[in-house]
Design brief:
Length: 335
């Protein structure tokens, strides 16, 4: 019995030593985490200082050029590029939406949606439009000002609080959040805009018969690459045959293999978009051909890192992946 007893004592002692190490580990891991975060912040600052374009390239720009909407600015589903910002029609849309003219991909998304729908004659008096995840964007107000009847939707307040959208002012709690008097007079806004809550992963079946729909950088937040694409498919079913869907999202231009999936924010690759276009075309829909050629402007060579700047911000780093915005233009098939 002596030998087994000694073995038991040794086993207990080893367990005690392991327990002592484990009880010390959380503190050691926390110290390591803090050191790593300090290192990350320092690297972000260093990277930002070294890669920020010279001020004369972006400060006070792009130039404001008098103009009007273009007849064929976006024949393709495409990516955010610097050259779009330096056109008369881009200046027109920034002013029309009461947005400051600046090198920012979110402004490009707003302009892309308005221009793409306008040149396809979707924005007209009496047309019905459906917006998803509208936040505080000016698009609903603009469409209403043109006589369109708009249903603007966003997630329920409780869910928005969980995801942090309210703190960053990226959620609409109701119709009042969408009011933009400089874009649409209040009487016209009140007459033409209604607000509803909507889960983009479970779009209500009664949202049908619309002439156009849109979302601006929303469907990448639905939980996975596939959930985002399934939403786009569902949004098309909200349209009349021949209606138009225009959606923007995150494009990972750094890799066609590695990306982020199954996360709060996912990143779409070239292969994802190409496969999705084939999928929609197989269903009888028409998709404006993909143009994913990246621009070569001096400002867009800069990749913004957290904490992100107000401008220039055409490209950014998300979990180490260089990304920008892309837009899809889809026409529902006749069936």
């Amino acid at each position: 019995m002596a030998q087994p007893f000694k073995s038991l004592i040794k086993s207990i002692r080893r367990s005690q030593l392991l327990f002592e190490r484990l009880t010390k580990m959380p503190g050691q891991l926390e110290a390591l985490r803090r050191a790593l975060e300090d290192h990350r912040r320092e690297m972000r600052l260093l990277h930002g200082l070294q890669t920020l374009p010279e001020r004369q390239l972006w400060e006070g720009k792009p130039p404001k050029i008098p103009g009007k909407p273009h007849a064929h600015a976006f024949p393709y589903s495409t990516v955010c590029r610097q050259d779009s910002f330096e056109t008369p029609w881009f200046s027109y849309w920034a002013e029309r939406l009461d947005e400051s003219l600046r090198y920012h991909r979110k402004l490009w998304e707003f302009v892309f949606i308005c221009q793409a729908l306008s040149e396809r004659d979707a924005v007209r008096p009496g047309a019905r439009g459906l917006g998803f995840g509208v936040g505080s964007e000016p698009l609903g107000a603009y469409f209403a000002s043109e006589g369109c009847r708009i249903t603007a939707t966003d997630m329920a307040v409780e869910r928005a609080e969980e995801m942090g959208w309210i703190l960053t002012n990226e959620h609409a709690a109701g119709k009042a959040a969408l009011r933009k008097p400089a874009v649409c007079p209040d009487d016209l806004f009140d007459a033409n805009v209604e607000f509803r809550t909507c889960d983009m992963n479970d779009v209500s079946q009664d949202l049908t018969g619309y002439d156009f729909c849109w979302s601006a950088c929303a469907f990448e937040h639905l939980g996975s690459l596939e959930k985002g694409l399934a939403f786009v498919e569902r949004s098309i079913q909200c349209l009349k045959p021949g209606g138009w869907a225009v959606h923007t999202s995150e494009y990972n231009y750094g890799s066609n293999v590695e990306t982020i999936d199954h996360a709060d924010t996912v990143l779409y690759r070239k292969q994802d978009l190409e496969a999705f276009v084939r999928r929609l075309e197989d269903q009888g829909h028409r998709v404006a051909p993909l143009d994913l050629q990246m621009g070569t402007g001096l400002v867009e060579q800069y990749v913004d890192v957290m904490p992100y700047r107000d401008q220039p911000h055409l490209r950014m780093s998300l979990w180490g992946h260089p990304t920008t915005s892309f837009g899809l233009i889809i026409q529902r098939g006749e069936s």
